[in-house]
Design goal:
With 368 residues, the protein is α/β, with parallel strands linked by helices. It has 2 domains: 182 residues, Response regulator (Rossmann fold), CATH 3.40.50.2300; 152 residues, Response regulator (Rossmann fold). Helices cover 42% and strands 17% of the residues. It has a 7-stranded mixed β-sheet, sandwiched between helices. Bound molecules: beta-D-galactopyranose. Beta-D-galactopyranose (GAL) binds next to loops.
Length: 368
């Protein structure tokens, strides 16, 4: 009888010690995504949750419905819960300075995909090479129209960029515009609307309806006289969806307009298969989540990783460590930047389906 009592007392004491020292409590990761209304963030959120849970962390994930006040509340709640790490994709990179002040020395923050400005709480940034996203779109146009051998031919182009609140948006636009500006300067590319500044071509919240209405206005004002539109360079798929609808419904020309995008949203992949959209720049957010996991684990283990996180990893994808591209107002943020890739009708099966990111549901791909 005595031995049973002893074992019971020992067990109670042992568990009490564990609890007092915090051993045995899983650490918690707070994840905050901008919204579910833009397709990619649903995938990001799922991948991030799966990755951290696969390593035994508790995950508290919030989607802030593209409402800045909601995102501030979501972050406040996670800070109050004293999470061990925050992974945040901001709706507005300028709107989180105040709320993250409380986290500054307590909770490490990884800015996920979009940079968070004016706060020292952000220890790292994980994203894709956002400038290269735009360059890939510009280079695709350059190659498709053989702009270096135009021989007197000219092509009409219109630009659609993203949300001015999103630090990525002007970077995407700069990559594309810097690539094509030499051809605009030579008169090989012509912008009939005259809209070539980021603020003129930006799209609030990346909203498809906003992009649709702006393109309808441009078509009505500058193409009603039968002028041909050759190219609609859109910096992402949600804006490309609106632009494609405007061109389908309201463009009088009978030529195929070359339309670009980014993200591989399923509606746009269907448009690519149907020939309505010409390309998208795909970013494997599954890999972005893997990098975020390994970085987050290192940070929670008290490390401050650099290049070696890549060297010591088992990642089967390219990633660059960068300390000079992304200054968030408090200094350059150590960044891990993955590599985007061009997807068209020709390589969609190989790059998106054979890799397992999507599966074919009849004629069209669906995201897993
Ligand atoms: C950007 C993101 C892109 C784009 C957009 C829409 O910040 O990097 O993938 O699609 O937001 O959410």
């Amino acid at each position: 009888m005595k031995s049973k009592k002893f074992v019971f007392m020992f067990a109670v004491t042992f568990v009490a010690c564990l609890l007092m020292t915090g051993i045995g409590f899983a650490k918690t990761v707070g994840i905050v995504m901008p919204t579910k209304s833009l397709e990619r963030w649903n995938r990001d959120g799922e991948y991030l949750k799966q990755q951290f849970e696969s390593r035994g962390y508790d995950v508290n994930i919030r989607y802030s419905d593209n409402k800045i006040d909601q995102q501030v509340k979501d972050i406040e709640g996670l800070i109050a819960n004293n999470v061990d790490l925050l992974v945040i994709a901001p709706i507005n990179g300028l709107a989180l300075t105040q709320v993250l002040q409380d986290a500054e020395d307590e909770i490490p923050v990884i800015a996920y995909d979009r940079l968070i400005m004016n706060t020292k709480a952000v220890r790292y940034y994980v994203s894709f090479d956002n400038y290269k996203v735009g360059v890939l779109q510009g280079e695709f146009i350059k190659k498709m129209f053989d702009l270096d051998n135009a021989d007197g031919k000219t092509f009409n182009i219109e630009f659609t960029a993203g949300d001015p609140a999103d630090n990525n948006a002007p970077v995407f636009f700069a990559g594309a515009f810097d690539t094509l500006k030499p051809y605009i300067d030579k008169g090989i590319l012509v912008v009939p609307s005259g809209q070539t500044e980021f603020q003129q071509v930006a799209t609030k919240a990346w909203d498809s309806a906003v992009a649709l209405e702006r393109m309808q206005n441009i078509l009505a004002s500058h193409y009603a006289d039968g002028r041909v539109l050759d190219i609609a360079l859109c910096n992402n798929d949600s804006t490309a969806l609106g632009v494609t609808k405007a061109i389908t419904d309201d463009y009088a020309g009978d030529n195929k307009v070359i339309i670009t995008g980014q993200d591989g949203d399923v509606a746009n992949l269907a448009n690519i298969i149907d020939g309505k959209q010409t390309m998208t720049v795909y970013k494997a957010v599954a890999n972005e989540a893997v990098v975020t996991l390994d970085l987050g684990v290192a940070i929670m283990d008290g490390k401050e990783p650099g290049e070696e996180l890549i060297k010591d990893s088992k990642w089967d994808f390219a990633c660059a460590f960068d300390t000079e591209s992304y200054n968030n107002g408090k200094g350059f943020v150590k960044s891990y930047l993955l590599t985007p890739l061009i997807v068209t009708q020709e390589n969609l099966q190989k790059e998106l389906v054979d890799t397992g990111y999507y599966y074919m549901d009849g004629k069209y791909p669906k995201a897993k």
